[in-house]
Design goal:
Layout (H helix, E strand, L loop, with lengths): L1 H39 L8 E3 L1 E2 L2 E17 L2 E5 L7 E4 L6 E2 L4 E5 L2 H7 L10 E3 L4 E6 L12 E7 L3 E8 H4 L7 E6 L3 E10 L9 E7 L11 E19 L4 E3 L2 E7 L5 E5 L1 E6 L2 E6 L7 E2 L12 E3 L3
């Protein structure tokens, strides 16, 4: 009875093993097919960033040159005594006073005794010291009761009260300037003064490699000599046509200036450009782009050569 049972079980076991073999083969075939399908499917690049694009824009700007410098007196006269042995009796002016030509600056004592010692001395010579020109007293070293010495500085006078701006410039920059060019000088807290180029130095300092231009200031009231100022020269004589981009689209790496050009496949490519002057938030592009070349407007610092981007319209 047991023998018959064993004979019946053999076919069942064989069928079971066959089923496992078929199942394993099917699984292998499914796995292999999936792997081949994955290998055959092309890789899809996800956009690195969503950006807006921009292109060159036609503009008209005045060509300008900027510089730094100091406010200085136009001319400064040094006032001194020409005789000795006289005492200052009274000082009539102080620093910052405005005087007219001929105004008395100080008077001297012991004048009559000095005349007796030197009859050749004119009677009007040193009884008083007067202003040689109109202007502003910028320094005063005279004190009542002290003795004057020949040639010793008593006062300094800014002639006519006129100040000017001395702009520090390189040789290349100086060669762009002409006498009479208009200049705007920013001084103090937001004050803008209009001036004109009065003189241009014919050489530069061999150590610093800088020369200077002197700019006449028609209105220097309220300005202190020695103050620092920033100025802009209009070197174009009017406005010129140019092409520009937003400054956010232009990047710098070392000495190279570049933008990110967007290709037809939405990949970005670095394009070196030559830039010019700036105006507000825009920058002149002199070379490197054509009229309708699309470039990344902003966010380029987060992208590298060949990155895929998604372009947003509008």
């Amino acid at each position: 009875m047991s023998m018959m049972n064993i004979k019946r079980k053999h076919p069942v076991a064989i069928i079971a093993f066959a089923g496992l073999a078929l199942a394993g083969g099917a699984a292998w075939m499914i796995g292999t097919g999936k792997a081949k399908a994955e290998q055959a499917a092309p890789a899809v690049s996800r956009p690195a960033l969503t950006v807006r694009t921009t292109a060159l824009r036609e503009d008209k700007w005045a060509r300008t040159l900027t510089a730094n410098g100091s406010i200085l007196p136009w001319q400064e006269a040094i006032i001194s005594a020409q005789v000795q042995g006289l005492r200052i009796a009274e000082v009539k002016v102080s620093i910052g006073d405005h005087v007219q030509q001929g105004d008395v600056l100080l008077t001297l004592d012991n004048f009559s005794s000095r005349l007796a010692d030197d009859p050749a001395l004119p009677r009007s010579a040193q009884a008083r010291i007067v202003a040689p020109d109109s202007g502003v007293i910028s320094a005063a070293n005279a004190n009542a009761g002290s003795m004057v010495q020949p040639g010793a500085e008593l006062f300094r006078l800014i002639r006519k009260g006129r100040l000017e701006w001395r702009a520090e410039l390189t040789a290349d920059e100086l060669m762009l300037l002409r006498k009479g060019m208009p200049v705007q000088i920013a001084v103090g807290e937001g004050r803008i003064i209009k001036g004109t180029v009065r003189a241009i130095s014919p050489s530069v300092n061999p150590q610093t490699r800088y020369g200077y231009a002197l700019v006449a200031l028609p209105d220097s009231s309220g300005i202190i000599a020695g103050a620092f100022a920033h100025g802009t020269f209009d070197i174009s004589g009017g406005k010129k046509a140019l092409q520009s981009l937003p400054q956010s689209a232009v990047m710098q790496r070392g000495v190279a200036t570049y933008v990110l050009l967007v290709g037809s496949d939405n990949r970005v490519h670095e394009r070196v450009v030559k830039v010019g002057q700036r105006s507000g938030d825009r920058i002149e592009i002199k070379q490197g782009l054509k009229a309708n070349d699309p470039v990344v407007e902003s966010g380029g610092a987060f992208l590298t050569e060949g990155d895929v981007i998604q372009v947003v319209k509008g």
